[in-house]
Design goal:
Order of helices and strands: EHEEHEHHEHEHEEHEEHEEHEHEHH
Bound molecules: 2-amino-3-ketobutyric acid
Number of domains: 2
Shape: globular
Distance between the termini: 52 Å
Strand order of the largest sheet: 3-2-1-4-5-7-11
CATH architecture of the largest domain: 3-Layer(aba) Sandwich
Structural class: alpha/beta
Radius of gyration: 20 Å
Number of strands: 14
Largest sheet: 7 strands, parallel
Amino acid sequence: MRKEVTLITGANGEVGHGLIAHLGRLEGARVVALDLQPLDPALLPSCYRFIQGDILDGMLLGRLVSEYEIRAIYHLASLLSTRAEFTPEAAHRVNVEGTLNLLRLGVEQAHWQGRPVLFLYPSSIAAYGLPSLAAKERAGRAREDEWAQPTTMYGCNKLYCEHLGRYYARYYRQLAADTSTASIDFRCLRFPGLISAETLPTGGTSDYGPEMLHHAAQGEPYACFVREDTRLPFMAMPDAVKALLMLGAAPRERLNRLVYNVTSFSLSAGEIYKLVQRAFAGAVVSFEPDVKRQAIVDSWPADIDDSAARQDWGWQPDYDVERAFSEYLVPAVARRYGREATVTA
Ligand code: AKB
């Protein structure tokens, strides 16, 4: 008999770390983790199996289907916004073709099992594209269906994959004679910039937030690549994991949409610096905007409206800005680098 498992792609990434650590603690959760790189050894005890490989490798995905009964897929693998601009076509392959492979795998599994397979997909504020800074200032908290004109390859990929998820969940092979077979239960979150104490982000454009903190904790100066007044929504990693788990567990009939915004707090780069300085006396940050990366951040909303998630499945972050810094980020980052920090409640 094939074993029932939960598949997590991009297992080594920021969200993968938090998610695997959590699922590994749950009784009976068999996590099959997939990543291009060897898995962080700290995560191995939480996994049923780790496979080092590529989501573009059809043979590998085929073997997974034959070996496991996949009940849920958390498809986290992607190339983030800054890195994707250096290799847009490669990013498209990973972010879109990779997602297409996983969606097809999910549908195939659902057919075999005769029941829906849960498919959790993290999208991003990068799916938005505000035409100007003035529009960003006027826009306020963006709702899911507004400003959907992303300017980055990553943002285009995320937005398109939101649509692909809807297609595979509801319309896949809609002209086939037999349309009665089960499909995927696609659920998507649009995340703000995520800040983790355990891992450093790689290749994103909202990375200046976490980078400021990790540099300060190591006693290193940081040159911030956006202006001090640049504002984005952010979320502490435990809340990102909580949001994925809550959306995954929500009764299907409560969900009025496939794509939900979730957020915790909105901060300017200058405000992040103040919080970092409060924790690590002597932290040095200079603001040296990179015009091109600045333009990307200026096209993302200063805040997002997550009232649909709050209403449909009871979303609420555990960490507001104070708690995120004083109870999670600062103590954990200080521990990580063996530093003293001032924790202000
Ligand atoms: C990035 O900066 O690319 C990501 C994101 C906002 O999705 N952190």
